Amino acid sequence: MKYLIVLFLAISVLQGFIACTKHVNLFAETEQTGKSLYPIKKNDKWGYINKDGNIIIKPKYCKVYESSEGMAIIRPDANNETAFLIIDATGKVVLEYKGLPEGMTKPQTTIDNSADTITVDRDEKILFSYNGVEVHRFCEGFALVLIENKYNFIDKKGKFISDIGFEYARDFSEGMACVGIDIDKTNDTTEDILYGYIDINGKMAIKPKFSGRGDDFKEGLASVLSDDCKWGYIDKTGNVVIDFKFDFTDDFSDGFAQIGFFTDETDDETNKIYYGFIDKTGKIVISPQFELISNFSSNVASYHEKDGSIVYINREGEVIDSYKVGCDFSDGLASVATDINEDSYPYRWGYIDNTGKLIIDFKFPEAYDFHEGFAIVDLIDKLGYINKIGDLIFTHEKPVELSDFLHGLAKVTIPSKAGSKMGYINATGKYVWEPTK
Predict the structure, then answer these.
(1) First to last CA, the chain
(2) What is the reported pTM?
(3) Among 180, 410, 417, 424, which residue is least crowded by beta carbons within 10 Å?
(4) Looking at residue 266, what is its pLDDT?
(5) CB–CB of 206/234 below 8 Å?
(6) Positions in the chain whose pLDDT score sits under 50
(7) What's the CATH number where 193 sits?
């Protein structure tokens, strides 16, 4: 969403939402187009293993980052925070950047880099941003970088996609990336930047003609902003297929996109916006009536009543179920809760499918989203993973930190005053790498 993000965050802290928060994810890619590398730490140095637990890159680096699409980014020099390496799945260095030249303008750091290994949210694409150097994970074969005040893309051979760079850029999505071009070459104001899209060859597939930054292409369409600050949708040829008439738009998902219109109602001196859904013809299929609602996933969307309860609707806008607390659908299931005040935990959590049928009974003090067929659950004195029929495949006594499964492995971190240990388990719940520090 591009509007009322603050409102979203405020509502997200309603009672019961703690169980919808995501655990730390070690990887951030949504597609796997290469072999995964998994960071390990041994004797205070970092390296990588493969899915089988075999060492691919011996631990020797001071800082490493998540792999994506078989590529990994490393910071080799603790005294040079803007230098980095890009390596492939064999450990070969495909690009070495030695750091910013002396005297370069250094914007304020936006990402905390205090830890040895940085992990980010599943949907977050930035690996690190420090003193004017920004590096994203690989996405559809390219890593977006900001170097020396210009955005550019690096391919898996370490080559830059453009000789000149861009004033603005987004990661590739469906073979297209939104970029901003300074039309008068002065680079002194964002008003002189127009936005278009490049393809994977670096060619301008949609000429820069939009005054506002465009969104990613999803299901063949992308929302863009007109000169009069209205949102519409274009196809991959740049043709406007849904007119500029919305005050808010979001990506298409399950064939529907969330849109919104301002109303005359005010909230803290700001005009309220109500949200609904359109199909790919631009037809409103669910009328704007919600102050906040999720996108469709597994053909279900959810919204919250004023008392904080969650309501699930289908593609016709019909209510299929409601609970006092609950989360959005992920991997085909949604965690929901019922009141059971047997201990310090006020609820017991279970899971429903997209018809509202209870698939896993209410038995967990807390329960989180499913990823790759597994979900993290809280067992009061332990944390563990369950499969989609509710069977436990792994447990560990607290304190322990668990990550979501991604590409077959999940990270297990055991904190201690002497230093945290980190290992990986596979889908059977067995360690492929015993926790080390």
Answers:
(1) 39
(2) 0.85
(3) 417
(4) 76
(5) yes
(6) 1, 3-18, 21-33, 105-123
(7) 2.130.10.10
Residues 95 and 197 reside in one and the same domain:
no
Q: Own/partner pairs for 111-120, CB < 8 Å, 24+ apart?
A: 113/63, 113/81, 116/41, 116/46, 116/62, 116/63, 116/64, 117/39, 117/41, 117/46, 117/63, 117/64, 117/65, 118/63, 118/65, 118/66, 119/24, 119/25, 119/26, 119/66, 119/403, 120/25, 120/28, 120/66
Residue 98 covered by a domain: yes
The 3 state secondary structure assigned to 118-182 is ECCCCCCCEEEEECCEEEEEEECCEEEEEECCEEEEEECCCCECCCCCECEECCCECCEEEEEEE
Q: pLDDT by residue (tens digit) across 9-30?
A: 333 333 344 456 444 343 333 3
User: Would you say residue 433 lies in a domain?
Assistant: no
pLDDT at 12: 36
Q: Burial, 176: exposed, middle or buried (Cβ in 10 Å; 0-12, 13-18, 19+)? A: buried
How many independent structural domains does the chain possess? 2
From edge to edge, which strands make up the β-sheet containing 270-278?
248-253, 256-267, 270-278, 284-290
Same domain, 277 and 204: yes
Residue 78 has a pLDDT of 84
Q: Which domain holds residue 84?
A: 34-165
- Give pLDDT, residue 16: 46
Cβ–Cβ < 8 Å for 401, 378: no
CA separation (Å) from 221 to 30, 153, 382?
Answer: 19, 22, 44
Taking phi over 0 as left and psi of -120 to 50 as alpha, with beta for the rest, 392 belongs to beta
Whether 356 and 321 have beta carbons less than 8 Å apart is answered as yes
pLDDT of residue 100: 84
User: How many C-alpha atoms does 426 have within 13 Å on its Cβ side?
Assistant: 9
* Residue (of 331, 407, 371) closest to 34 by Cα position: 407
Look up residue 293 and give its two tokens: 């609602």
- Longest Cα pair distance anywhere in the chain, in angstroms? 67
